Amino acid sequence: MPLALIETSHCNVDLKPSPIEPSWIIEGNPEARACTLSISTDRAASTLIWSCTEGKFNWYYDVDETIVILEGSIVLESDGMPPKRYDVGDVIFFRNGSHAKWHVEGYVKKVAFFRATNPLGLGFAVRAVNKLRSLIARRHPPAAPREVSVPAA
């Protein structure tokens, strides 16, 4: 069955337990919950809603991740970055390979957009192919449906 070209969801979904790696927890008993909203056909990109209760923990990023805080606040710190508070509406981008210390102040809920990174050469090739497809599509737009007349019986 082919996938829908457009999928919709909502931020108020049922979240399931998504425990933080115990060795990453620094302080408290943070309880994380999540729900995947979408996954791209090639599985290189996904979107999820994630929430967490109060606590401090490390997080290590193995993909690019962009987040938008929907509820609550956090304090983030990392090497070369002093602690800073972020709250509702803030957007944060974590590059693949980065590390951050999270301090959830009571509760936080975010929407997260993940993208697996390709090796530099492969990424360049994919962009080139996509650019060619875009140029071809502009030169040859899809044909408009034709009206078919049916002779009277």
Compact description:
The protein is mostly beta strands.
Labels describing this entry:
153 residues, mainly beta, eight-stranded antiparallel sheet, 1 helix
Describe the structure.
The protein is mostly beta strands and about 150 residues long. The longest helix has 20 residues, at about 120-140. The protein has one helix at about 120-140, and strands spanning about 15, 25-30, 30-40, 45-60, 65-80, 80-85, 90-95, 100-115. Strands 1, 2, 3, 4, 5, 6, 7 and 8 form an eight-stranded antiparallel beta sheet that branches. The chain is globular. The relative contact order is 0.17. The model has no long low-confidence stretch (mean pLDDT about 85).
Count, helices? 1
- Tell me the β content: over 45%
Order of helices and strands: EEEEEEEEH
Shape: globular
Radius of gyration, in Å, reads 22 Å
- By secondary-structure content and strand pairing, the structural class works out as mainly beta
First-last Cα distance:
39 Å
* Low-confidence parts: none
- Give the % helix: 10-25%
Number of strands: 8
Average pLDDT metric: 86
Report on the biggest sheet.
Answer: 8 strands, antiparallel
List the helices and strands and how they pair.
Layout: E1 16-17, E2 25-28, E3 32-39, E4 45-60, E5 64-78, E6 81-87, E7 91-94, E8 99-115, H1 120-139
Antiparallel strand pairs: 1-3, 2-4, 3-4, 4-8, 5-6, 5-7, 5-8
